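Structure ticket #2291
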Amino acid sequence: MRFNTLDDWLAWQETLHPKAIDLGLERVRAVAARMGLLAPRHTVISVAGTNGKGSSVAMLEAVLSCAGLRVGAYTSPHLWRYNERIRIDRQAVDDAALVASFARIDAARGDISLSYFEFGTLAAFDLLQRAGVDVAVLEVGLGGRLDAVNILDANCALVTGIGIDHVEWLGPDRESIGREKAGIFRNGRPAVCSDPRPPASLREVAQTLGATWYGLGEQFGYRCAGEGWTWWGPGVTLEGLPLPALPGAFQVQNAAGVLMTLQALGERLPLTLQALRAGLRAARVAGRFTVVAGPVETIFDVAHNPHAAAALAEALAARPCGGRTLAVCGMLADKDAAGVAAALAEQVYHWYLGGLAGERGQSAEDLAKRMALASMQRQQYPDPVAAYAAALAAARPGDRVVVFGSFHTIAELLPPGL
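Resolution: structure written out below.
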C-alpha cells in the first residue's frame, strides 16, 4: 500500500494529475473496467444541474432510506471532512474504508493518471458496490457528459435548475450548459428535469438520445397550498404532502423532481406514501440556508453563483428581520461575483468581504472590484474569519449575518454538525 492515512492519500492525489479539472471519460472508464465497476447490480440515479443537486440528492437519499432500502450516496465537494462525500445508509464512510479503496484503485490503474476527483468517484463506486447497496444516488460534479460519474449508465437521470457557472468548461450560456448536463441521459431510460424553464438543448438531447422525457410543468408538476403541497404526474396525484424540511420555498420545486424520479423508477424501487412523507421531513443538507438562532441570527448558505444567490435573496425576503442584514462573503476567482452581488443587492445593508487562499482564490480587494456595485457599503478583510468577526462585532440585536459565497467560506465558519 502506497500510504497508510487518508490525509497522505489525498495530498498525493492532488499532485498526481497535471490538471485539477480534466474532463473526459477514457482514463477513468478504463480503470473502472479493470475493477469491475461498470455494470453495478444496484439501481443508479444520477443528478446533475447548476443548483439544487445537493438538496435533491439528500431528499432521494432520505426517502429511499425511509422505505427500508440500503442507500449509497456520492456528493461533492465536502464541507469539513472528505468522508462526507461517500455515504452508506446516510453515514459517511470511515478512513479505513477509503484508504483500502484508494489502494485498490492505485493497483488497478497501472500507468493511467487520475485526477483527485476521479480517484474519489472510483472510490465511491467501489465502496457502494462492496456494501451491496440497493440504490446509489450520484451527484454529478461538473457538467454531465464528460464528468467521471457519467461512466455509469443511470437507470434514471435527474437534471435540476440550470444557471450560468463553470463557463470555461461548459460554455457561456444556458443552452451550451444544458447540452452538457443532458449528457447523463440514456436511451430508453427516464430523463427528469425539475427546472421550470429548461434550455431547449436539454430536451433536444434527450430526444436525440432516445431518453423518456419528464419535464416540470409538462409531464409532472406541483401546487402549494398552506402548509402542504400537491404533486401530480403521469396517472397519479398525491395531495397533502408535507413541505420539505430543507428551508426555502424553492425546495418544493426540487422535491417535485425527486418525486418524478421515484415515480419513474417505481417498478425497480416501490415506495409507500408513508416513506415519501417521512423522507421529505428527514432530509438535511449542511450549509443550505442553515439558521443559527440568537439575538443576532446567523444564516449560512453555500450560494456561489447568481442563480443560487437569487434563491438566497428570495429566502431572505421571505424571512424578514427587524434589523439590518450584514453579508459575509468570500468567493473563488472563477465565479460571477458581479452577478451574485446584483442578485443580493436589495437584501444586504453592509458587505464584509473576506479573501480566499489557494489556486482559485482571490483577495477581498479583487472581490470588491469584481462585484462592481458602486453604491455598496463594504469592508475588506484578509479572510472570511476576520470578516465574520467584524460583522458580528458590528451587529446589533435584531440584525442578522448572512454568510455565503463558497463551500470554502462556509467550511471555515459553520460549526461542524449544524
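Closing remark: The CA atoms of residues 43 and 370 lie 44 Å apart.
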